[in-house]
C-alpha cells in the first residue's frame, strides 16, 4: 500500500470516487450502454481496480443504487430529529426528499429511472433500498405522531399506512417535478404538505370522513 | 373460418382466453419461468395459435399488461361519472382501484410485481399503461374539482399534481394491502380518503399551511 499517486488513497475513498463516476456515467448513458472504461477514466482509476472492487458492471451499478438509497434514508433520519413538531418533521422529511432529487439529479436518474427497469440482482437491491427508505419514513411518521394522541394510540399500522402513502406519492411526484422545471423542491414540498398535512391534522383531531351511504351526504 | 369446436370462436374471444390464461400462469410462475405450453393448454388453444396471435411470450406478456392496465383505466373513467360530488368521485375512483387490486389478484401481480422488474419493450408498455391510468385520474380530479372554485381556477397543473400524488400513494399502498389481509379494499380506501380528502377539502376552502419560518409556529 506504499507508493505514489493514486495508490495512496484508502480503499473507501477510491470506492466512493468510482461510485461517483459510475452514477454520472450510468445517468448519462443508461445501464446497458455505459462502459466500465469510461467510468474508470472519469474516476482516474485503472479498469482492473474497478473490477477488483465491484466484480462487474452490475456490481458497480448495485453499489451506486445502495449509496444513493443510503443518502436518501439519512435525509429522513435527520428530519426526524428531536424538538420539532409533527408538521415540521414532515416538512423536513419531504424537503429532504425533494431536495435530494433536485440536487442529486444523476443519482435520482439511476435510482428512479434506470434501476427499476432492470431485473435480477439489481431489482433486489432496489427493493432493499426502498424498504430501508420506508422504514426510515415509518420512524419519521411515528416520531412526528408521538406528540399527538390519536395516531400514537392506534399504533404502528397507521404510521405504516401513512408512510406508504407518502413514499408512493413522493416517488410518483419526482417524475412530475422533473417534467416541470418551474416546480422547485420547495414548491412541490409545500403542495404535498397542503394536500396531506392539512388533512392529517384534522384526522389527528378526530375528524373522520364517511363514504356516501345512499344519500349524497357530502355537500359543497 | 368455418369448422367445428375451437375454430369457430371469433379471434377476439380467443385472444381474451389466451390473455386470461397468460395472466394466471404468469402470476403463478413469474415471467421467466412461465412457459407458453402451459398457457396454451389452460386456454385450450394450440401453441402455434398463441404465437400466431402474440408473436412471442414477450408479446403475450405485453398484451396481459395492456389488458390489465385498460381495466384499471376504465374503473377511473366510470368513477368520474356525472352527478357525483367531488368526494364521492374520489371515493369511487379509489374504491375502483383497490377493488381491482383485491378482485384481480393475478392481474395485479403481473402488473405491479412482475412487469416493473422487466426491461425493454415490457417496461415501455408498463410506462404507457401508467400514463393512461394517470390521464384518467387527472380527468377524475378535474371533473371532481370543477364544482369547487379554487382548484378549477388554478387550472390543470393542480389536477396533475394531485393525480400524481394519488396514483403514487395508491400504487405504493397495494403492496401494503397485500401484506395485511385484514386491510380490505374498503378499509384502505377509507384510510386514504381520510388522509387526503379531509385535507384536500380544506385546501379547496382556501386554507394554506406555511412552513415554519424560524419560530415554531405550528401548534400541537
From TrEMBL, chains A, B:
<keyword id="KW-0805">Transcription regulation</keyword>
<dbReference type="Pfam" id="PF00440">
    <property type="entry name" value="TetR_N"/>
</dbReference>
<dbReference type="InterPro" id="IPR009057">
    <property type="entry name" value="Homeodomain-like_sf"/>
</dbReference>
<dbReference type="InterPro" id="IPR050109">
    <property type="entry name" value="HTH-type_TetR-like_transc_reg"/>
</dbReference>
<dbReference type="GO" id="GO:0003700">
    <property type="term" value="F:DNA-binding transcription factor activity"/>
</dbReference>
<keyword id="KW-0804">Transcription</keyword>
<dbReference type="InterPro" id="IPR054129">
    <property type="entry name" value="DesT_TetR_C"/>
</dbReference>
<keyword id="KW-0238">DNA-binding</keyword>
<dbReference type="InterPro" id="IPR036271">
    <property type="entry name" value="Tet_transcr_reg_TetR-rel_C_sf"/>
</dbReference>
<feature type="DNA-binding region" description="H-T-H motif">
    <location>
        <begin position="35"/>
        <end position="54"/>
    </location>
</feature>
<feature type="domain" description="HTH tetR-type">
    <location>
        <begin position="12"/>
        <end position="72"/>
    </location>
</feature>
<dbReference type="InterPro" id="IPR001647">
    <property type="entry name" value="HTH_TetR"/>
</dbReference>
<dbReference type="GO" id="GO:0045892">
    <property type="term" value="P:negative regulation of DNA-templated transcription"/>
</dbReference>
<dbReference type="Pfam" id="PF21943">
    <property type="entry name" value="TetR_C_46"/>
</dbReference>
<dbReference type="GO" id="GO:0000976">
    <property type="term" value="F:transcription cis-regulatory region binding"/>
</dbReference>
<protein>
    <submittedName>
        <fullName>AcrR family transcriptional regulator</fullName>
    </submittedName>
</protein>
Amino acid at each position: 500500500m506504499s507508493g505514489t499517486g493514486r495508490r495512496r488513497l484508502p480503499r473507501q475513498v477510491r470506492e466512493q470516487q468510482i461510485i461517483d463516476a459510475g452514477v454520472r456515467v450510468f445517468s448519462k448513458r443508461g445501464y446497458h450502454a455505459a462502459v466500465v472504461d469510461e467510468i474508470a477514466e472519469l474516476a482516474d482509476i485503472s479498469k482492473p481496480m474497478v473490477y477488483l472492487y465491484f466484480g462487474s458492471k452490475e456490481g458497480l451499478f448495485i453499489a451506486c443504487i445502495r449509496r444513493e438509497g443510503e443518502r436518501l434514508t439519512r435525509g429522513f433520519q435527520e428530519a426526524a430529529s428531536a424538538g420539532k413538531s409533527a408538521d415540521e418533521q414532515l416538512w423536513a422529511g419531504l424537503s429532504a426528499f425533494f431536495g435530494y432529487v433536485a440536487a442529486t439529479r444523476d443519482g435520482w436518474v439511476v435510482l428512479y429511472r434506470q434501476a427499476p427497469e432492470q431485473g435480477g440482482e439489481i431489482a433486489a437491491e432496489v427493493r432493499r433500498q426502498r424498504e430501508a427508505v420506508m422504514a426510515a419514513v415509518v420512524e419519521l411518521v411515528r416520531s412526528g405522531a408521538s406528540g399527538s394522541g390519536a395516531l400514537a394510540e392506534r399504533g404502528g399500522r397507521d404510521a405504516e399506512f401513512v408512510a406508504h402513502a407518502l413514499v408512493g406519492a413522493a416517488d410518483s411526484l419526482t417524475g412530475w417535478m422533473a417534467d416541470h422545471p418551474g416546480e422547485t423542491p420547495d414548491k412541490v414540498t409545500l403542495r404535498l404538505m397542503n394536500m396531506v398535512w392539512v388533512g392529517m391534522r384534522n384526522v389527528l383531531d378526530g375528524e373522520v370522513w364517511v363514504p356516501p351511504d345512499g344519500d349524497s351526504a357530502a355537500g359543497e
